[in-house]
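Student: Send me a single protein entry containing the residue sequence and its fold in token form, directly below this note:

Tutor:
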Amino acid sequence: MRAGRLIKFSTIGAGTAVRSLFSKDSARQYLVGTLLEQSGIPAKIGQMIAMRTGIKADAPSPRLELPEVRHLIEEQCPALAAEIEEITDHPQVASLSQVHRGRLRSGESVAIKIQFPGVTEEIDSQLDDFLALAARSPARAFGFSRDGWRGFLTEKLREELDYRQEAIYQQEARRSFSGTQIIVPEIFSQFSTARILTQSFEPATSVNDVAQTEIRATAAASLMVEYLASSLFDHRLIHCDLNPGNYGFRKSGNITNMVLYDFGAMQRIESLHASTLARMVVVAAAGSSAAELDWGPLLTSLGFDESKLKTIRAGIGAVMASLLQPFTGDTRWDPGSWQPGREIDKNLGDGRWWFRMAGPPWFLYLMRSVQGWHSGLKTLGVEVDTRPLSDTAKQIADRAGVWTPQRQTPHESNNSIHSRPQWKSSHLKVKVTEGAETVVEVEMPVAAIENLPDLVPDEVHAMIRNRGIDLATVSADLVQQGAPPGVVFEENAGKRIYRVWLEKK
């Protein structure tokens, strides 16, 4: 993190009444951002919520000024307030918190993470509203379960907002990687609370800046492979937010280290799921026949919905062979060549939404982690040896016992479930612009036209209704016509222009 200017903590100023502006806006922005970071349907839900609420998911985060920081520290962690000697005046700001570098009276250099006031309570109150909105979105056409996601998201969000739980995860990760080239900052429990987390300051170079340093990209990439293999199969605790701000690299003599930060978003992998994933890797590594195998039993073992998988059975083998490509032990794997989204689209078409909705919520958190990992490897821009992933998986699979894959039996076409209308378009698209800026742009399967009234913000819906247009009737007519390509409507709402159209690709 950026060091900033160290100033005496005692000179910051008197305590102040901390602003409440953070709670509502930050909570909404954070919830949308959390959904947008998930694979498939949750991201689409986040986009629709952003459109309906006017939230810009990438809007700049607010910031606490130093007097407010001092007030919160003195109020919530008096022991830390008494021990701080100096603190930076330029923190690293995130969506719900900011991190200051500081120095304790003992001389130790620390990073102090401080949560914005009020956001935890606000997120709890807004989550049900968000899920209700999601349940009325196009996701329902593909089996979105409000109840299933409510429990999971509530648990994960509360974990992420409780720094005591983050400290537990971080301490566990620190023990797991002790003695390796992966560094996890030390927690100062006596100076941490539910809303303040104090840890050792561990400098590192962001993955985005490795090319400008003496750190070899090949060494950094190898560490990333070893990290994923170990965390997924050995420790079964994965970091789900591998964005460039949450890890980095540094050299100590001739040794390159990987430093991990921010353990709020974590996912435990059950033993059964870890062994199932390991078996999948072994099967995929066995050869090209992976695309012809019946992956149903393994996927249902992970918690996938068997009834949803049946609708897309023909293409799943090829999809799985593609998804598991990084784990198959290539000695010179090029991360830039891996395009799982394109392969899913090619093999499943609109059925990709059934595949994404079939997966359990925890699996999407795993995919979030792998996506962040892959993005970092692409940034490094080098080929990497992925044998640590396949070798570790084989050890786990051997201990779990041999699984003999079966070849697929004859099956119905992927499109059997869509036997009702013969769609003339392939996608429904929504675009919201404000001046020259695109605020939201969403592409959905054409079947979403059936839920057209739910896609439109209330104020836009009212404007259209005032012009004598009933969106429910428009939706029903378009469905009956097979959704021919063309503009459905375009409406000006103040500074924003909402455009909805059907398109054939």
Q: What stands out?
A: Residues 276 and 419 are 34 Å apart (CA to CA). DSSP finds 18 helices and 16 strands in the chain. Residues 411-420 have pLDDT under 50 and may be disordered.
